[in-house]
Amino acid sequence: MTATDRGPVQVLGEVLSNKRTGGYHHLTLVAPGVAERFRPGTVVALAVGGELSDRLLRRSIAIYRARATGAYKSTVELVLAPREPGEAWLASLAPGAVVDVVGPLGRPYALPTEPVPCTLVGSGLDAAPLFSLADRLKDRGCPVHMVLAGRSDQEVFGALDAKRAAKTVVVVTEDGSVGIRGEVAAVLPEVLRRSGSDVVYAAGPGHLLHEVAAVAEQHGAWSQTAVGTGLVCATGSCLTCVVPVVGEDGISRMVRACTEGPVFRGDRVRWGDLGTVPADAWGAPHTAEGDS
Known about the structure:
Layout: E1 9-21, E2 24-30, H1 34-37, E3 43-46, E4 59-67, E5 75-80, H2 85-91, E6 98-105, E7 118-123, H3 129-139, E8 144-150, H4 159-165, E9 168-173, E10 180-181, H5 184-195, E11 199-204, H6 206-219, E12 222-227, E13 242-246, E14 252-256, E15 263-265
Parallel strand pairs: 7-8, 7-11, 8-9, 9-10, 11-12
Antiparallel strand pairs: 1-2, 1-6, 2-5, 3-4, 3-6, 4-5, 12-15, 13-14
Helix pairs in contact: 5-6
């Protein structure tokens, strides 16, 4: 594949299957060109609403798995939680339905150059892209360990799949309905100590990513975090996903998670300032001295 073939494509994808799995929907699309360009951590932007799709923002969904070969050649697998109208519409599609797909989009997870132990941490449905990442890491000889979290057993995604993907799996739930009762931050230090992980990958809400990045730094590990909060269009046009990130030059900038991310170094995101524009960020508005 040449450099010009690595960018996203826009195709009319066909629904191959749409199955309910617990509280989620597993959607498989035949989408030529997308799987060939896929790297773990990237997303697709799907048009929703049928005839009204030109009036609505696309829905950004992380790719669970992608297959460039097989009976249907190029397929991408997505996992949905149909809690809002757009994803509910996608979850209602029958095999053979057509969906406009743009992807893969965004910055993926970076893979280690050497076979080092890695820990993957995911919460709920956000954990979906970690499974294809685990496959890539194993192909590189990296021992993989996983921590999966959720508020309850119904929200933990892929626990059985994780047992096939990783050497060790720890499940954490807030209500204790399965696995260890508590928070990821309470169990992660011991996981990193036992595994000797040099790299920690995470996907989940901002507070979880903040905790993972902090624990990884204390352990001396490098962290990569996939910011999913606020991703809507995935094309950079709606500006709902801006986050404050410290650049290599030490300057904080407001960047779009869907284009400059969604994967960032955990120690570069200003987690405590999510949802705000820090006063010291480049380009931030300043009140003139003496103004009220």
